[in-house]
From TrEMBL:
It catalyses: (R)-malate + NAD(+) = pyruvate + CO2 + NADH. SUPFAM superfamilies: Isocitrate/Isopropylmalate dehydrogenase-like. GO terms for molecular function: D-malate dehydrogenase (decarboxylating) (NAD+) activity; magnesium ion binding; NAD binding. The keyword Oxidoreductase applies. It comes from the Bacteria. Its EC number is 1.1.1.83. This is D-malate dehydrogenase (decarboxylating). It is an enzyme of class 1 (oxidoreductase). InterPro entries: ICDH/IPMDH, IsoCit/isopropylmalate_DH_CS, IsoPropMal-DH-like_dom, TTC_DH. It comes from Oceanobacillus piezotolerans. Keywords: Manganese, Metal-binding, NAD, Oxidoreductase. Belongs to the isocitrate and isopropylmalate dehydrogenases family. The lineage of its organism: Bacteria, Bacillati, Bacillota, Bacilli, Bacillales.
Length: 354
């Protein structure tokens, strides 16, 4: 019997609703497979917790989480709590505290009708974006000088260490080699003459160890254009924290919206737990209405299962996802259906266990 303990942080807005459907999938797998079991610990952290306590998570939050096998996060963010607080004091705190330096964002068109791109189909949009997740532009380094005065100056410093840059690029090369796919680096060396020139240099250096991997390198503005005009150029993509954040939202836009956007925050060495999450945000305007799309949260369950070494179940969840998105009457309103959040989850379980 393989047992996995999962920390649940449902978070804000629609987070609890979509996490409940992901847990529903895991419990269904446990019931169907006598060799697998899951247990759950739930924590009430998020913006409502912040409004009540002044903290996004407990002071010993990382200590409470460090012995679980994975963290399943719903959403973070709510009106009245500044975004830089909600993001940095929970999500980024966990990512950096547990050295989850790999962010995996699959950009995959599951249904041809979901893309706004004329003439593009599933065969054209199928890539994996590997985003550096621990430093870069989100390192939090900088200063705010002479605040409120006419000579006010703000400094925001990107941090690109040899260790951090090399390990994410090497991870991407390994993924491209394993999957027999091309690897594209996205940077901005023409304008950022230190950080991105360094990034490009490391990409070339590491590439000498992988002569079998075909590579490309684009400036981020050109890459953004190609994401829309020629997404078929991309198979495996590696990029910095900020650029990865931006281009993956473009990826969501061309594959059906944020309701289908998922992400995994990975500690490859498994010295700390990894974290899995939909990346659509908390959507407080529809919270509690039962209309939130749970498919991104369920897709993140597929990523979690792969990470646990349960690849067959991971593939089954993904295949079920590909099946359900072709049945419009079984989808939520944002994808053209009328189903409720829980109805989608119930039908998903039915399909999964057929």
């Amino acid at each position: 019997m393989k047992h996995f303990e999962i920390a649940l942080i449902p978070g804000d807005g629609i987070g609890p609703e979509v996490v409940a459907e992901g847990v529903k999938i895991l419990k269904a797998i446990e019931k169907a497979d006598p060799n697998v079991s899951f247990s759950f610990r739930e924590y009430p952290w998020g913006c409502e917790y912040y409004l009540n306590t002044g903290k996004m998570m407990d002071d010993n939050g990382l200590e409470l989480l460090q012995d679980v096998d994975a963290i399943y996060l719903g959403a973070v963010g709510y009106p009245g709590v500044p975004d830089h607080i909600s993001l940095r004091e929970l999500l980024i705190k966990i990512r950096r505290g547990f050295d989850q330096y790999v962010n995996l964002r699959p950009i995959r068109l599951l249904n041809d009708s979901f893309t706004p791109l004329k003439g593009k189909s599933q065969k054209d949009i199928d890539m994996l974006v590997i985003r550096e997740n621990s430093e870069g532009e989100y390192a939090g380094a900088g200063d705010w000088l002479f605040k409120g005065k006419p000579e006010e100056v703000v400094l925001q410093t990107g941090v690109f260490s040899r260790k951090g840059t090399e390990r994410i690029i090497r991870y991407a090369y390994e993924e491209a080699r394993k999957s027999n796919k091309t690897l594209t680096s996205i940077s901005k060396g023409n304008a950022l003459q230190y950080s991105m020139v360094f990034w490009d240099q490391v990409f070339e250096e590491v590439g000498k160890e992988y002569p079998d991997v075909k590579t490309y390198s684009y400036l981020v503005d050109a890459a953004s254009l190609y994401f829309v005009a020629q997404p078929e150029r991309f198979e495996v993509v590696v990029t910095s924290n900020l650029f990865g954040d931006i281009v993956t939202d473009i990826g969501a836009a061309i594959t059906g919206g944020l309701g289908l956007a998922t992400g995994a925050n990975i500690n490859p060495d498994k010295t700390y737990p990894s974290m899995f999450e939909p990346v659509h945000g908390s959507a407080p305007d529809i919270a509690g209405k039962g209309i939130a799309n749970p498919l991104a949260a369920i897709w993140s369950v597929s990523q979690m299962l792969d990470f646990f070494g349960l690849e067959e179940w991971g593939r089954s969840v993904l295949q079920t996802l590909e099946t359900i998105v072709k049945q419009k009457d079984r989808l939520t309103k944002d994808l053209g259906g009328q189903a409720t959040t829980s109805e989608v989850g119930d039908y998903f379980v039915e399909l999964l266990l057929k």
